[in-house]
Records
---
Amino acid sequence: MSSLKPGTVEELYVDQEVPYGFFLTNDEEDRVLLHHSEITDEIQEGDTVKVFLYHDKDVRLTSTMRIPKVQVGAYGWAEVVDKREDLGVFVNIGLPKDILVSADDLPKFLSLWPEPGDQLFLSLNRDKQDRLYGKLATENIIEQVSRRASREMLNAKVQGRVYRLLKVGTFFLSEQGYRCFVHENERKQEPRLGELVEGRVIDVKDDGNLNASFLPLKQEKMQDDAEVILSYLEQRNGAIPFWDKSQPDEIKERFNMSKASFKRAIGKLMKENKVYQEEGWTYLKK
């Protein structure tokens, strides 16, 4: 049995040149091909080279001098390049062959699966046949790689990638390396795993982790809500069967906002002399 395993970095001896590359070997005389397309520096027989080992499309152990950050025991970000409902998603870690992240490690709902272009924080593992697959970082790993935030981060905007989804909220790791949590009440919808998100810091915890919100500030939200109402008025020729005494569930269904938010937005538009109300209707002023 070969002592060389895929997913690892090895220093090997250049043993023999062949038309399509070089054969490399170790002290135990295991041999592996380094194809010409995977050579980054000039080499010759007798040299020692550092290579990353992986299986090619024909499941043959091969090597590359392009060392990826993501390895067995080493974590990094990898971009999602394809999605298969029956298998999972495939990520690019810099190899000619993409790596599978199993559906078993992905969210239950397909709508929350990563899309091409999203990024996952992961390492590599080997199955019983020594085939490589991607393994998502656990919370314990995230805690090890994240950094502590100071109180100066309060109210700051943070951007990062979602790495964990729970019913109670969303976890993402910011570009600065901060671990951030967004409670379900602080978001309009649940983002995908691996999606790039931006939040506003609403609390800095004693352990240096951040609580964030995907919702805008109240004054910003009022402006957004007012624009939604104006847009609907224009679509309905300047008249809608809603006013500040409409039922909360009707407002929520039509505008996706609370009654309090609706009333604040209507009040803003009335103060700006853009709308008026009569007998259960709101009208756009000409």
---
Amino acid sequence: MELTWHGHSTWNVTVGDTTLLVDPFFDNPHTEFDPLDIESPEYLLLTHAHADHIADVGSFTDATVVTTPELAGYVEDEHGVTETIGMNIGGTVECDDAFVTMHRADHTNGAMTDYEHSMGEPTGFLISDAEPTPNSTDSATTFYHAGDTALMTEMRDVIGPYLSPDAAALPIGDHFTMGPWQAAIATEWLGVDHVFPMHYDTFPPIEIDVSKFETAVESSESDARTVVLDGDEMFSL
């Protein structure tokens, strides 16, 4: 599995011959890429409807969008998307070589930050090379994109012990999501081997010294390696 961070919460994930792009938003200071520079993915995964997560959906209309039914309908109407898979929290869908499991995130979800029009629950995704079952999670390789979220006990009680992610991308920018200290607790609860900070330094309210997160993880009970990627940098999991 190959993971490329394009800044903010935008990740390009390759599983076998399948490419999945999560939360396309290229107007951020950590990427030098334009959406047109990205080879069109087979699948586009959307965690929620805020503008800094779906702004560039219209550049990838050949992809199949995987998201909640409410947001699937919205991007069909507003962004010219024709192929969608509407799923909901707790479900798993097969996306060619990848299995995508949706989990909730603690956040808000107005369309393009218009809070008069809710897009259902905000979410995160677990992307795996095997279907999650009691017998497969130990041998599978699984990446958890937590979306925009606060610290939540489901990380400790469900996602970590039962879905067994090997790596997690966690928001650390504070203000709109959890900050470094709570993200370090999430790292501990999830039991991952690798953790990647995301959703920081994009706007003034979420500018942060990323070393605070590294220090918090080192001071926790977690054995995870904190991997701070440069924008557009790839990591092989």
---
Amino acid sequence: MHRRSSRHVGPDGSGRHEPWTVAPEPVGSGAAVALWRAYYTEVSDRWYEVHEGRHTDAAELERAIAEDTGAGLSPPAGVLLVARHGGEPAGTAGVRLVAPGTAELTRVFVLPALRGKGGGSVLLTAAEEAAQGLGATHVRLDTRNDLVEARALYARHGYVEGPPHNSDVYAEHWFRKNLPPRTA
């Protein structure tokens, strides 16, 4: 997989550019584990805040993080991509084949402090390329009502909401996108 980068004007308007790079990384690497913890903590806390008015219990959080090892996000049928902003780990996207021609996106996440700087788009494009590399002709994903930033990102990138493709108790929106044919 090729590294991909996007450049933008710095937040101070100085014209200084901070590059985004994306590359495959083992799910057990230090960067991948730290980003998984940040992702899971955020989505879990958001769910509990909306539904129960509280943050995730610390012991429950630790159990859930340890239980989801990222199985399926390793070759030959999957990949975990880590995005770096200015060289520092900043986001992830997981891709796994779930059926012939069908890839599923998971763990699509950019650290909150770096949102709005193009990382989500860079990650999503790299994830689609990775899905094609795994032989997928389309990708699917699910998300929740409270993850409005994610839903907006998917819509901007041509994902179409459709009927449920799973029975995950936390899924409230299901998206799909056909990938263009690979070019040599």
---
Amino acid sequence: MDTSLVVPQLPAREGVLLRPWRLDDLAVVEEAAGDPYIPLISSVPSNYSDTEGAAFIRRQWSRAADGVGYSFAIADAGNDRALGQIGLWPGPHGRASVGYWVAGSARGRGIACAALRTISSWGLEHLRIPRLELHVEPWNAASWKAAERAGFVREGLLRGWQEIGGERRDMYVYSQLLMDLA
């Protein structure tokens, strides 16, 4: 059975485009590698080199090829420059996880919210996934505010939910259902 997934190109609001990763997206991987937080919560290398950056991009391709999930570059629709990453990871019981990061130079422009709205409607309507979930640390107000603006509903606090940077961290849990789409 072929379990490969196809990562499509999805136009979003706010001049954003979700598209498959390309090897010419190394600049955003390098910027993300220099961020103190992104390498802790993603597979972005903490010690950047072009070899490590290319390996990161190839891992994004393999996620779809292996049927694990969809990893998109969040790109500027005007110049096609990658600004971040968003992924949709289908799991058991009709649920999928969503995760995202935006490079520091692109923050504060509504990019995460636009990407979340797009991937959410695609996952709920096109892929027919009944429930999307995401987890955000309570201190990360920019991230949870983007989730709330995109229509995700905070369901609670999961104490000691995830290990990040060698310590257990609390996480807000958010969900979105088809009926939540605005």
